[in-house]
UniProtKB/TrEMBL annotation:
ATP binds at residues 6-13, 32, 125. It comes from Mycolicibacterium poriferae. This is tRNA-specific 2-thiouridylase MnmA. One of its GO terms (biological process) is tRNA wobble position uridine thiolation. Catalyzes the 2-thiolation of uridine at the wobble position (U34) of tRNA, leading to the formation of s(2)U34. CDD domains: MnmA_TRMU-like.
Length: 357
């Protein structure tokens, strides 16, 4: 098979490329340039896709003896990931940019170009597994990335390969060292790749500006003023700008955000409990929406927020009734459905949360 490997310059995608070569495939490596100023996208372990990363990926490709290219996706990344991220926060949502990057860049724009150029598959260093076309959790549950891949369609999964999903991270690093790859001990990237400073609020504030509004309690009483709803997320406890806890002495949390009126509502922790999720743009890994109620487990964050549920597709929307309540669920997050068997590792589908009650 002709396989294009997305090489970020990290240890995971490097070992993925090496394994594809070992498997006898015709392999080409590609690094995505996602910024018009790539030098600004890495500060230590923060950020990615910098000139440093491109150089690391090229050196790995040289060791493996495979062709290597850098493809410029900066404009597409800005429009489909960064601008979407900013716009979502301006609407009072809490998006996951890694989900959007996989959905719109790696497995849409990149995969489409790969197929058009005659490649049979796109391989990445994601921690996930594929079995008979079905997406499953990685063996290393601490590194599992099936959640951020659950937006992929059946057709996209048919042309995807995840060579390292069957191996724990520690063994991947050991394998990289044995292969003589200089990235064996390179720090993992974390936080949001296009905000290398780690200061999300400053990043958003510089792009959205000041949109003043009020922080209110459940009765509507104004407790404080704020400079924009983008400074808040559902479940937030600190940085609310209010004087101390509620009248009962308990901490207060953000329980609602109305971007239209620039109103942020706070309340007790119990007010964060949600029992029903409403998701838009559902995707099912089988390629077909289930008929009738579907028993499942639902996960609402990349690493946490899991409970049993019953999901049903209704008029193009996914409605998920939770067996037990979840807290801190926000519009913009992704609800991912897993098969509720003993393994609990098969992804059934996903949707972007529109509302939660």
């Amino acid at each position: 098979m002709r396989v294009l490997v997305a090489m970020s310059g990290g240890v995971d995608s490097s070992v993925a490329a090496a394994r594809m070569v070992d498997a006898g495939h015709d392999v080409v490596g590609v690094h995505l340039a996602l910024s018009s100023a790539p030098g600004t996208l890495r500060t230590g372990s923060r950020g990615c896709c910098s000139k440093e990363d491109a150089g690391d990926a090229r050196r790995v490709a040289d060791v493996l003896g495979i062709p290597f290219y850098v493809w410029d996706f900066a404009d597409r990344f800005k429009e489909d990931v960064i601008d979407d991220f900013v716009d979502s926060y301006a609407r009072g949502e809490t998006p996951n940019p890694c989900v959007r990057c996989n959905e719109r860049i790696k497995f849409s724009a990149l995969a489409s170009r790969a197929l058009a150029l005659g490649f049979d598959a796109l391989a990445t260093g994601h921690y996930a597994r594929l079995s008979e076309g079905r997406l499953r959790r990685a063996v290393d549950t601490d590194k599992d990335q099936s959640y951020v891949l659950a937006v992929l369609t059946a057709d996209q999964l048919a042309h995807a390969m995840f060579p390292i999903g069957d191996t724990p991270k520690a063994r991947i690093r050991h394998e990289a060292a044995q292969r003589g790859l200089a990235v064996a001990q390179k720090a993992d990237s974390h936080d949001i790749c296009f905000i290398p400073s780690g200061d999300t609020q400053a990043f958003l504030g510089a792009r959205i500006g000041v949109r003043r509004g009020s922080v209110v309690d459940s009765s509507g009483a104004v407790l404080a003023e704020h400079d924009g709803v983008h400074g808040f997320t559902i479940g937030q406890r600190k940085g609310l700008g209010i004087a101390g806890p509620g009248p009962d002495g308990r901490p207060r949390y953000v329980t609602g955000i109305d971007a239209a009126t620039a109103t942020v509502q706070v309340g007790d922790v119990a007010d964060l409990d949600v029992h029903t999720l409403y998701g838009e743009a559902p995707v099912f890994t089988s390629g077909v929406a289930p008929e009738g109620p579907l028993e499942c487990e639902v996960q609402v964050r990349a690493h946490g927020g899991i409970t049993g549920a019953v999901a049903e597709s209704r008029g193009g929307e996914l409605v998920v009734e939770l067996r037990s309540p979840l807290r801190g669920v926000a519009p913009g997050q992704t609800a991912v459905l897993y098969r509720p068997d003993p393994a609990g590792d098969e992804v059934l589908g996903s949707a972007t949360i529109r509302a939660a009650h």
